Amino acid sequence: MQFSSRFDGQRAIVTGGAAGIGLSVxxxxxxxxxxxxxxxxxxxxxxxxxxxxxxxxxLDLADxxxxxxxxxxxxxxxGGVEVMVCSAGITGPNRTTWEYPPEDWRRVFDVNVHGLFYxxxxxxxxxxxxxxxxxxxxxxxxxxEGNPNASAYSASKAAVIGLTKSLGKELARHPITVxxxxxxxxxxxxxxxxxxxxxxxxxxxxxxGRFGRVDEVTALILWLASRECSFSTGAVFDVSGGRATY
Length: 246
Ligand SMILES: NC(=O)c1ccc[n+]([C@@H]2O[C@H](COP(=O)([O-])OP(=O)(O)OC[C@H]3O[C@@H](n4cnc5c(N)ncnc54)[C@H](O)[C@@H]3O)[C@@H](O)[C@H]2O)c1
What we know:
The mean pLDDT is 97. The chain contains eight helices and seven strands. The protein starts with 10 loop residues before the first strand and ends in a 7-residue tail after the last strand. α1 packs across α8. By secondary structure, the chain is of the alpha/beta class. The chain has one domain (11-239): NAD(P)-binding Rossmann-like Domain (Rossmann fold), CATH 3.40.50. It has helices at 20-31, 43-49, 64-78, 102-130, 142-145, 151-170, 196-204, 214-224; strands spanning 11-15, 35-40, 54-58, 83-86, 133-138, 176-183, 235-239. It is globular. It has a seven-stranded parallel sheet, with helices on both faces. The structure holds nicotinamide-adenine-dinucleotide (NAD). The site of nicotinamide-adenine-dinucleotide (NAD) has 27 residues, from α1 and α4.
């Protein structure tokens, strides 16, 4: 299949683009013609990801002022932005809710919810000014179902789903779509943040009996980020090997 011109001339921001799903998305967007700016806190991984079409900024997305500054820098450097994919996220520890340390709960929300909110809100004005936009937020099937021993993560991803639905409706009369995806477990470095028991639990819940692959998630994100996705907004797209029931 030939996709080489889907993003010709477009400018994209990928948060969490230095690793895992975000890195795969950044590379695929670049391969299909986009100029990409990665926003990630991992400076060394950004350097490793750099190419002719991929640049990067190192920042903590939980810092609202840093995100505002990154948005200004990026719009100036690229001349505009058509695509934002928000992939940065953390899991927090695997504990019961009553044992969950409040500071870990707050950090999960600071990155997964507040950070994503800062990113979406910082880039919408540039998309309105440019007359076009595609925003893809990465939630999780945990946000629909609630995984045991992962209440902060599950609640944070439910918040991403709610934010996506609200923003999608707010922008529905603009040529800007906002959608999210809800993957089941995909083997990336994020597994290092989880217990073995939790990883085994997630696998046991997937009817296909295997983890998802980064390229399978990337394919869905790229479609949602493309012009082809024109009549879906504020929507939630499944990529869970049959786990999700709605
Ligand atoms: N891999 C899975 O099983 C899975 C399943 C469902 C949803 N997701 C979601 O997909 C997204 C990507 O996950 P992944 O598997 O690629 O994870 P990953 O750990 O491989 O990559 C996450 C990236 O986000 C960056 N990041 C984290 N916190 C940051 C911060 N505060 N500021 C800037 N950058 C930050 C990291 O440096 C890293 O490069 C996450 O939102 C995750 O919750 C993953």
